[in-house]
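Hey, resending since the last one bounced:
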Amino acid sequence: MTSQRLLVLAVVALLGSIVHAFAPMRPPVGLAKISSQASSLPTAISMADADFLDGSDDAQGRIKAMVENHPVLLFMKGNKLFPQCGFSNTAVQILNSFGIEYHSVDVLADEGIRQGVKDFSQWPTIPQLYVCGEFIGGSDIMIEMYQNGELGEMIEKAKADMI
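The structure tokens again:
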């Protein structure tokens, strides 16, 4: 196990206990178990975060298009190269640990998206992760699913869908 992976695991474990103390809510996520074998992909390729941030009034339509067009999508504060809050940073570190290409959207760049994504998912906080068009949850749910292996299984399915 690399030192970077160990550091990620340590940070995730530490933040997991902190997050669970302050975020007891759980989204209604009905996730089917998907069995697959893990394979490492190269480090994620950075994508522009402003693909759909065009300033139009149809935030729900833009959000829906992003969710449909990106197999792994993270709405966050900041971007994956420079997260602007600890929860977004945790989400980025978890996704980076899988070595998968994913798209991030900086909600701070567009107030319509910032509020719209909360309405779209009916979940009040940022970050928010979508995998294969399905809302997964925020950083607390990501930590829990990372620790129990469910997120890894979902990411493997998303990798297969990208091929």
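The chain has a mean pLDDT of 76.

Sorry for the duplicate.
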